[in-house]
Structures are given as structure tokens and as C-alpha cells.
Amino acid sequence: MSIFIDKGTAVIIQGITGKEGRFWTSHMKDMGTRIVAGVTPGKGGQRVEGIDVFNTVSKACAETPVDASMLFVPPRFVRDAVFEAMDAGIKKIVTVAEGIPLHDAVRIRKAALDRGAMVIGGNTSGVISPGKAMMGFFPYWIERVYRPGNVGIITRSGSLTNEVTAMVVKAGFGVSTLIGVGGDTVPGTRFAELLPLYQNDRETRSVVIIGELGGTMEEEAAELLTAGKFSKPLVAFIAGRNAPQGKKMGHAGAIVTGGKGTASEKIKALRDAGALVAEKPVIVGELLKQALKIQNKRSQRNG
Amino acid sequence: MRIFEYEAKELFKKNGIPVPVSALVEEPSELEKVLIDIPGPWVLKPQVLFGARGKAGLIKFADSKEAAVTGAEELWGTGRGIKKILIEEKIQVQRELYLSITIDPGKACAVIIASAQGGTDIETLAVSGKKDILCEYIDLDIGIMPFNARKTAYGIGLDNGLISQYVSVVTSLYNIFEESDAGLVEINPLFISGGGRIVAGDGKMIVDDFSLYRHPEIAVTGERFEDDLEYEAFQKGIPYLKLNGDIALMCAGAGLTTTVYDLIVDNGGTVANYLEFGGPNYTRATAAMELCLKSLSKVILIVTFGTIARADVMAEGVVKAIKKLKPKQPVVTCIRGTNEEKAEQILKKAGLIPLKDTEEAVRTAIELANC
Q1: Among A92, A96, A243, B110, which lies 20 to 30 A Cα-Cα from B96?
Q2: pLDDT tens digits for B241-268?
Q3: Which of B:30-69 have CB within 8 Å of A?
Q4: Least CB-CB distance to B274: which of A101, A249, A259?
């Protein structure tokens, strides 16, 4: 079993008839993702890539059991689409849209917390378990990045994830599940909420966090480690050590506000909690080997 | 998007938050009338978007008209791009409080942050270990209830006589926050005047960029940006920061661009501009390079590792941009991702050296910049 998505996960696509929706539905299917239905208001009755399209999520759910929803919906309609999915009882939702209004993002996360649902994104490439399934748009055909294996990856970035994961694969590892939480100020799901899933995942032996300046997600991950709630080897890379003060570095969430969220504070918090932090992507693979060695010694001592 | 103090205070006034009597002046000829209309003494506040005006000596106090005129002339003459000055009546201050509303991303709520200690900035407050700071969380879908405001008022130890005024200020400020899709609204200091009135001494507001489409009332003009090029880039939808070093970054992906920035500084180089043309912008190499060429630089460094962005499309775009714009400075390329072999051929054919490794690209750029 992987985290969040596996070969058996029944996925619907909200916004399946759009250009992006069509294109990535074909790729998700091609990779092995089990797509059971599509939803676009007004397009009910059509078929896309051999998949039935419904007008509403609840109608799609009435026709077939659904585990998760993938949204290819423009940012200003994301709130409505996420609430529609939650209203139909769906507990796993991925939204890739960049530009979701801040207060919409807050309302989405609050509703998800209240209902025990998990919303991944926005502003992300999504979730992928290489060799099994994906919800999002990953170039899974790039073998030097998306190789199946036992390293869990959680990230705030897209391109940087390719850069870092290529180093993980170069060192002889592969990926169990990669989850992009996204680059926004209020991601639907936070690092510290994902780590316990990796802790319980038998296919994951270690985790790499790809963070950046801004916010407090990396610090929360460090707190989880200190509290002993995550005990697998953890390696991190944090971008923005040299970022100019008070500037937004591309992502909406990549800015130091209220004196909080510098990359150096994050690096210190993670190191203090026992994680190994790479100064640059190229050494992530090496640190991963080190972290696994430390873990082995520890378990020998305890065993 | 940052909102000017005078705009924030207009919103405050409209929503029933007391503000000092004030007028906005843009040139010396307007001063005389304003100094008659508003009784002295006065405070002169330049309308700029950088913080810590007080510390920089840019807030002037004047007891006489002559002092006010001199003060205004000094502000206009600072060379810091000051155009508009807000002239305010000087409030007799008994106490200064702190009040702001922002988002707590973890709790997914709005949070009212209040303190009986005003005047210092939130950075100092945050570092001070949250002593004397009160946080009251509001669910956006429920909105503010009177008890939230009362809890805040009593929580910071206000006297009974001030509670109802304070409750009204907090409630109005929350409504402004909610209706403007703000990321932050802050009144610091919030005055208690000698006469026992609560008055907004300052007004800081940031409206979420992704929500601007719902706010046609906020004109996105050049004066909201620190630099004309940053304004131009914003209009083009390309994340861009003007800096003053040697190497112009034209990379794809925010995290990767930030990492390249780190590596350049680590290796002793300097950055001319931060520019990220990934995601939906990956076909816009020419627009990106045009921006790069407007900041002085010795090298253009292109690093990408596309997710949706195809490497061959980016390489083609870069070659086209070079042909059209003919940059004088060398262009270093490290373009990877889907169809990277094809990208390599395209770059080679155009006489460029396609590098594969980010660090190698960074070192090459620094060497060229030092030539």
C-alpha cells in the first residue's frame, strides 16, 4: 500500500473536459491510475478518454464508488469544487491550481479539518506513487526522477523537486510516494500532517523534505520529530538561505513575515530535532545514505 | 498588494474606526490651505510602502506652519521617491496599543493579534516571546462575534470605559479584513487619546494578490511597486525581483530559482535579478529575457527542470529570444526535463553550450561574470 494513492484508488476528475483535464487524464490513466468518472457541469453524458462524464460529483458518486477527486479547475472555482467533493463524502482531494484566493484557501483547509478530509494543494504538481498511480501532472516518464523505491518525498516545489529527487535516484534510491503540498501561503495539508502517514507506510524507509523560506511547516515537522512521532530517517533541503530580506521568492508562501520563517531558522530547528539537512541538492543522496546508516546502528544497538 | 496608509485610513473611516483629521498633499502649493483647514500641531507622514518610516526619521512633527512647510520640503527632498504626504492633526496620546488581523495557516483561521504595548513593530513583538500578546482565532465561515472582540478587549486589560469603543474598532477591522481579502490589516499604534478616545494612529494593509480580481476598487499602479521593472513584470504575470548584482536569473520554478540564487551567493557571485518563467509562463522566453535585459547584468543564467514545461519548447523559446533580442552578455543554459535530448540539440545548433548540472551552470556563470 502506498500513501494517499495506490493502484486500487478510485479517482474522479473534476474539470475533465478542459484542455488540461483531458491531457492529464490520459497520462494518469496511462500510468495506471484507476479513473472511474469525470465531472463537468453541463457536460454530463459525454465521454473523455473512455470515461463517463457527469454534471455533479454526487451523481458520479451514486454511479460508482469513489475514493478521491482530482481537480483541474481554475483557481477562482476551486473553493466551490472542493466543497462539492467534500459534500459528496470524498475524503481525498488534490487541487493543482495556482492562484487560489487566500481566504478561499483558508476556508477549504478549515472545512477539510472539520470533516476529516485531506486536501492536497493548491499550486502543486500533486501526488505520485511511481510505477503505480498519480493524481496531478508529473513527467513520470523521466526515469532519473520518478523511479519506484522506498524514499518518501514531501515538497513545496515543482522543478526543485525534480532537481532534488534526481539526486536521490542517482544515489541508488527510488520514491515510494511523492506529495507536493504546494507553494501557497495556506496549503490544504501541511508537512507535519503527512509525516505520520509515512511513518506507518511499510514501503517508506526514509523521507526527504523539500522546503523553503516562509511559513512554519518545516518547524512543525521538526516538532513532530522531537516529540518522537516520526522516527524514520529524515533528510531535508531548504531553499532560500541567501534570499534577500522581506522579498517574495516566486511562491506566494515563500516570504518571511512577522520575523518568522527564515531558511536558517528552519535548518536549525530540523537539525536540532535530529534530521540531516543538505546545504545543496547534490548532497541529498549522500545524506540519505548517512541517515539510514545511523538508523541501522541505532536499531542494532536497541535490537 | 500593499495598500497605502491613507487608503487604509479612508477604509477605516468609512467603517467607523476613528482616525485623525487629515489631508493628502502632493505638492507645496497645496500645503497652505491644508494647514488652515487642519488645526496644528501636525504630523507629516510620507506615503511610502517600505516599513519603519519612524526609525528612518521620515515622520515629521510640526508645531508651526513654518516648521510644517520645512518638514514637508525635507521629505520631498529625501530622494526616497516620496510623492504623497499625509498631513494629520497630532493626537494627544495617553497610551499606545497594538492591533492586527492576519491568517493562521495551520489553524486555518483569521487571528486577531492584540497587545497593550503598541508602537513597536510586529517583528519585535514576535521575537519577544509572545509576552503581552493575545491571539483570538476567528473561523472565516462564522465571522467575528461580539464575544471575540470583548475577549480581546478584556484580555489586554482595558478599563471598562474603553471596552465598547474597542469592541467596535476590532469588529470593524475584522470586517475590513474579510471584505478586502486581506492577508494583513494592522493598526500600530492604536492610540488612546488624552480625552479617552480610541484612534487609529497608523494603517497598514496587504490585500492578497490572488484575490485582486474581486477588488476592482484597488487600482494596481506603478506606485505600489518598489521598482518600475517589478511593476512591468507583475503586469506580465512573471515573478521578478530587481537586485543589483551581476547574474540575471531566468529560471523556471520558484523553488529551483531560489536554490540557484542560494548557490550563486554561496559561490561568491551576485544576482542582478530574480526571474521565474516556469509553470504557465514557460513558453514566454522572449518576455522573460526582455525583462532580464532591462536590469544591468554581465551574464544571463537559465536553469530549468520542467514538470509541465517541456525542455525542447523552452530551448526553442530561448534560442528565439536570443535571436530577437541579441543580448550582449553571454547566456548560460541548463535546461532539463521532458525531451531534454532534443533541447540539447536545439541549443547546440544555436551555438550555446547545454549544461546538465545546476552547480556547474552556476560556477560557469560566476566565472563569466568575473571576466
Answers
A1: B110
A2: 999 999 999 999 999 999 999 999 999 9
A3: none
A4: A249
CA distances from A141 to A27, A70, B181, B308, B337 (A): 10, 20, 40, 12, 10
Answer whether B124 touches A (CB < 8 Å): yes
Measured in residues, chain A has a length of 303
Q: Which CATH number applies to B227-370: 3.30.1460.10, 3.40.50.10490, 3.40.50.261, 3.30.2350.10?
A: 3.40.50.261
Q: Is A239's CB within 8 Å of B258's CB? A: yes
**Per-position b or e across B339-359, b if 16+ CB within 10 A of its CB:** bbeebbebbeebebebbeebb
**Contact assessment for residue B56 and residue B45, using Cβ atoms and an 8 Å cutoff:** no
Of 3.40.50.10490, 3.30.565.10, 1.10.287.1770, 3.30.470.20, which CATH number belongs to B93-214?
A: 3.30.470.20
> Residue B203 burial (CB < 10 Å; 0-12/13-18/19+)?
buried
Decide: A162 and B337 in contact? Cβ < 8 Å.
yes
Residue type, B113: I
Of A141, A159, A190, the CB nearest to B307: A159
Element holding A93 (H helix, E strand): strand A92-95
- Over chain A (303 residues), the average pLDDT of each successive run of 10 is 91 96 95 98 96 98 98 97 98 97 98 98 96 95 95 96 97 98 97 98 97 97 97 98 91 85 96 97 97 90 74
d(CA B286, CA B299): 16
Please give the ipTM for the structure prediction: 0.95
**Tally of structural domains, chain A:** 2
**Cα separation, A86 vs A282, whole angstroms:** 40
CB pairs under 8 A between A and B: 181
Q: And the C-alpha cell for A234?
A: 529524515
Instruction: Identify the DSSP state of A7.
Output: T
**8-state DSSP, B280:** G
Looking at the DSSP assignment, which residues form a beta bridge with residue A12?
Answer: A37, A69
Per-residue cell: B119: 508602537
Helix (H) or strand (E) holding B348: helix B340-349
Residue A15's CB: how many other CB atoms inside 10 A?
A: 25
> CB B105 to CB A185 under 8 A?
yes
Count of Cβ atoms closer than 10 Å to residue B26 Cβ: 11
Using an 8 Å Cβ cutoff, are A120 and A179 in contact?
Answer: yes
- What phi and psi values does residue A163 have, to the nearest 5 degrees? -60, -50
Is position A251 annotated as part of the catalytic site? yes
pLDDT digits (tens, 9 = 90+) for B2-34: 999 999 999 999 999 999 999 999 999 999 999
